[in-house]
Write a structure and sequence with these properties.
about 150 residues, mainly alpha, 2 domains, 3 helices, about 90% helix, Cys_alpha_HP_mot_SF, Sec20_C, endoplasmic reticulum, membrane
């Protein structure tokens, strides 16, 4: 029996070491209570170590610098929001201007077609008036020829 107890004692520490290794390998997000306790101990130890190395003045300056950084980030965020709203407004104005430009362009095209149409009609009208004048003067010549010259 003495041999079996020595063997049991030798096996038990190796099994305990294997269990400890498995426990150490677990991630902090694991749901087992032992891992959570180990994670919390590490967090507290890191916090105590940080407090030990940093004096109270350094903590105050660090807090102040973080507060100023947060305020600067808020200012930058506000500027970004203002810039975004300006950009949205400018885009809307640009879109409206583009629509008006297209409307004016369509009006100009229609006006150009009408002007060319009226130019053709003017040429036709001039030609017809010239023919009418020639006919009128031809008739006048015929009348004068018959009345004045009796040929």
């Amino acid at each position: 029996m003495g041999n079996s107890s020595n063997t049991a004692q030798k096996v038990a520490p190796s099994q305990v070491d294997n269990e400890n290794k498995e426990t150490k390998k677990l991630k902090p997000c694991c749901a087992c209570p032992e891992t959570k306790r180990q994670y919390m101990r590490k967090m507290l130890w890191n916090r105590k170590r940080l407090e030990h190395y940093m004096g109270s003045e350094e903590r105050v300056t660090t807090t102040e610098s973080l507060n100023s950084l947060v305020s600067k980030m808020n200012e930058q965020l506000q500027r970004s929001e203002d810039t975004t709203s300006t950009l949205i407004h400018s885009s809307a104005v640009l879109h409206e201007t583009h629509n008006q430009f297209n409307a004016v362009g369509a009006t100009i095209r229609v006006s150009g077609k009408m002007i060319s149409k009226y130019a053709r009609r003017e040429t036709t009208d001039k030609f017809l008036i010239s023919l009418a004048l020639l006919l009128y003067f031809g008739v006048i010549l015929c009348v004068l020829k018959k009345r004045i010259f009796l040929f």
